Amino acid sequence: MTKSAALTAVCALARPAAGACSWCGTPVPKGRRMWCRDRCATAFWKNHWWSRARRAAKRRDKYACVRCGGGRPIEVNHIVPCLGAHGTLSCAHHLENLETLCVACHRAHTAAARSNISS
Ligand SMILES: [Zn+2]
Ligand SMILES: [Zn+2]
Ligand SMILES: [Zn+2]
Q: Averaged in consecutive runs of 10 residues, what is the pLDDT profile of the chain (119 residues)?
């Protein structure tokens, strides 16, 4: 089983079914294996692979900080910390777990998250 297949089996967003698309569960047409169409593959990567997810989150948030509306430079924050999963396929990169922040808001968020852990 590939890494992505293993992930869709436990992913809250995916609806895999046996012999069907790993993302939406629709029967897969001849000549395709994991995904029924390119859109399903794209949706999977956008929600699980950091560099794709980060780009998609920025586009969704119109390249502005979601807290103060500030512009570049912007960064993408994991609302629930991804715990070092940047280099791996992970459900931590679901778009709903990502928000675009300016550098100042990101720094404030990280500092607040740290003090929450210590208190
Ligand atoms: Zn599909
Ligand atoms: Zn901001
Ligand atoms: Zn997932």
A: 88 93 95 94 97 98 97 94 90 98 94 74
Question: Quick one: CA torsion of 62, 65, 67, 68, rounded to 10 degrees?
Answer: -110
- Ligand 2 mean position to 116 CA, how many Å? 20
Coil vs helix vs strand at 73? coil
| Domain locations along the chain | 1-48, 50-119
Going from the Cα of 111 to the center of ligand 2, the distance in angstroms, rounded, reads 14
pTM: 0.88
Give residue 32 CA to ligand 3 midpoint distance, Å. Answer: 21
What is the residue type of 13?
Answer: L
Alpha-carbon distance values, 23 to 4, 90, 96, 118 (Å):
10, 14, 17, 39
